[in-house]
Specification:
Length: about 675
């Protein structure tokens, strides 16, 4: 949740596995042209042909090649002085011609050479077949991407000589400026993605190997019109959707989805949506009661969550759930101090009271690392009881952090990173190592309570160490700090599983099973998102890699509604309107099914899984919502079928209610015309 600054140059964000996948994504954005007998797809050879074949196959349209040759500047062939298209149309880049002082004779020589190559390719590719007639047709020009757009411009100008009724340009990746330029030249432009900054078309692909002449010949000879087109993405998803009232799938679906998984990660696409929290809590109740899950591990700080854990297990001094949640004071408090979590904590306390044996109780734990100072205090408090001399040493080591304000980890990180304060890395490590070394002697006292207290202290010491590294890394790069945080979550989850396995160690006892509550951006597999190009990891990815089929990832989405969020970091909770999802997003696709509340499993191959496997925009609202910069602030590209094992969609959602409702939050519930009603 903490904001960080990335001071490094951004790396390429690869979105598409290859050109074929890019074509399937494009096809999903061109459904308005599907099944029409006046549509023809032309792929710019060679790179555009694999993309165009997928488009033509999905639309049920004829496919042909349109050949454009770049006119490389003499001695600087990487610069396009212009382009030559089928039919002999030449388009020049005047800036390059003037800048490199290319003479008319040089241009003629280049054009003649490229013209011979163009004629050769037309002969090879078509194998004697005549070009497809385009007069009076709607022609979709497809390439694997646009950079300067010179080749596409030559194609458009040459194509106009054939008098088509309409010209449409469709590409997987291009700069926004180039897409806008072409929007004024043709009838329709579909740019599936517009990476920023844009450096090269190939950076959007994992596999951008050169397309051979033989591959082009094979694709053009393979009929793209395969009878009646298959179902659209919307139809495929609608057919696979299972009704999930209030966002809770039926028990049969949950049984099939979860099976024997030890870890079930349940996400949320915002930190302030009532339905996400309520459905997740209801699913978790079922997992605890019917499937034997014994813990909830939340995207929350360890000390605050452990206070809740003590309450639900009948320990500590808190008398009700509200008091147990009062440790969540740091922004954004509403993430855990809200009515849904309060009610769940009350239920968990009652469930544990009914369970009898302490070893069978379900706990509530935190995975996050923002509790630098509170975790230090927890370590000292534990040692004061167990080993006063060790407590003195811990207090002396942790005093290194005293030059910053209480629980102000960012201030510590800034000072340590830029030399404005000491680094306390050595002290944090020394304290963790000493506590680990003495753990055996502390654990010799019998009883679950003693073992739990030691585990709590060890996790707090571990959190201090990782938080110290995290806060220093915040000022070296966003990806570095993000990865440290999610790696800490994964390490904490591993430690919690091992601890709970030990607690329930008995002949024939099943292994511990944990439910994780976190944002979609942590629960989803980063390898299915554009962030993987930056080297970003997620908890979901790490859990999948470590536990395989013993883990399940579930994500939530919504189309529109309201949300509890702040306008800036540290700001008050506001009741905000969530804008309808953008075109080309997974949320818009799910909304188009016309179903209000449903779930789709992506575990098994199916037409729906294939539809959800295409790259689409994906919305993520954290604790801050900035609708004025919706696209830039809250969307990224992802392949949902690879990101999650199941997706739950709730069409319209409402804001999560904080326990402390402010006048600002209440005012957001009123329509803009209140009280006049106009």
């Amino acid at each position: 949740m903490t904001e960080t600054t990335d001071v490094r140059s951004p790396r390429a964000r690869r979105l598409f596995r290859d050109r074929r996948e890019a074509g399937r994504v494009l096809a999903g954005l061109l459904t308005a042209y599907r099944g029409r007998d006046d549509v023809i797809v032309l792929g710019l050879a060679r790179g555009g042909i694999p993309v165009a074949w997928e488009v033509a196959a999905a639309l049920g349209a004829p496919l042909d090649a349109f050949i454009v040759r770049k006119l490389g500047a003499p001695g600087h062939e990487e610069f396009a002085a212009g382009a030559l298209a089928s039919g002999g149309r030449v388009v020049l880049n005047d800036d390059v011609v003037r800048g490199l002082r290319i003479s008319p004779q040089q241009l003629r020589d280049i054009a003649e050479r490229e013209g011979r190559e163009l004629a050769r390719r037309e002969s090879v590719y078509r194998d004697g077949r005549p070009p497809v007639a385009v007069a009076g047709k709607t022609v979709i020009l497809v390439d694997d991407g646009l950079a300067t757009g010179a080749s596409m411009l030559a194609a458009v100008q040459a194509l106009r000589d054939a008098e088509p009724a309409h010209i449409v340009i469709a590409v997987p990746a291009a700069p926004e400026s180039t897409c806008r330029e072409f929007a004024g030249l043709v009838d329709d432009v579909v740019c599936a993605t517009m990476p920023t900054p844009f450096r090269a078309v190939g950076e959007s692909f994992w596999d951008f190997s050169q397309v051979s002449d033989e591959e082009v010949r094979t694709l053009l000879a393979t009929p793209a019109t395969r009878g009646e087109p298959g179902p659209t993405a919307v139809e495929a998803i609608r057919g696979a959707a299972i009704d999930a009232p209030a966002g809770v799938p039926p028990r049969a679906m949950l049984e099939e989805l979860i099976g024997d998984a030890r870890i079930v990660l349940i996400g949320e696409s915002s930190h302030g949506t009532h339905e996400f929290y309520a459905a997740r809590a209801e699913i978790t109740r079922w997992l605890i009661e019917e499937k034997g899950f014994c813990a909830v591990a939340a995207e929350a700080d360890w000390p605050d969550a452990y206070r809740v854990n003590r309450y639900v297990r009948g320990l500590g001094e808190d008398t009700d759930a509200d008091a147990a949640l009062s440790g969540f004071e740091r922004f954004p408090a509403w993430m855990w101090r809200n009515t849904v979590v309060r009610d769940f904590v009350d239920w968990l306390r009652a469930h544990n009271e009914r369970s009898g044996s302490p070893g069978r109780q379900a706990g509530f734990y935190g995975l996050d690392l923002y509790s630098l100072h509170r975790s230090m205090q927890a370590v000292i408090s534990y040692l004061e009881t167990m080993d006063p001399a060790a407590a003195t040493r811990a207090r002396r080591r942790y005093a290194c952090f005293d030059h910053t304000g209480a629980d102000d980890g960012q201030a510590y990180g800034y000072g340590a990173a830029f030399g404005a304060g000491p680094s306390c890395e050595r002290e944090a490590i020394e304290q963790l190592v000493e506590l680990q070394r003495n753990a055996l002697s502390y654990a010799q006292r019998d009883g679950l309570t003693v073992a739990d207290a030691l585990f709590d202290a060890l996790q707090n010491a571990h959190t201090v160490h990782n938080a110290e590294v995290y806060y220093r890394s915040m000022f070296s790069g966003r990806v570095t700090s993000w990865n440290l945080r999610d790696q800490h979550m994964a390490e904490t989850l591993d430690a919690l599983l091992a601890h709970l396995d030990h607690r329930i160690d008995a002949p024939g006892a099943p292994p511990a099973r944990i439910v994780v509550w976190a944002h979609n951006s942590h629960v989803g597999d980063a390898r299915a998102t554009e962030m993987s190009g930056d080297g970003q990891l997620t908890l979901g990815q790490l859990v999948r890699q470590r536990y395989g089929d013993a883990a399940r990832l579930m994500g939530f989405s919504t189309y529109s509604g309201t949300v509890t969020a702040a306008s800036e970091w540290g700001g008050p909770a506001e009741h905000k309107v969530v804008r309808p999802a953008l075109n080309g997003s997974i949320e818009e696709l799910l909304h188009a099914t016309g179903k209000a509340e449903f779930a789709v499993s992506t575990l098994a191959p199916s037409e729906a899984t294939a539809a959800l496997g295409a790259v689409r925009l994906n919305r993520a609202i954290g604790v801050i919502y900035q609708p004025a910069t919706e696209r830039q602030s809250h969307y990224f590209h992802a392949r949902p079928a690879d990101q999650f094992d199941a997706i739950i969609h709730i069409g319209t959602t409402r804001a999560l209610e904080p326990l402390e409702v402010t006048s600002l939050w209440v005012s957001g519930q009123n329509p803009e015309t209140y009280p006049s009603g106009l």
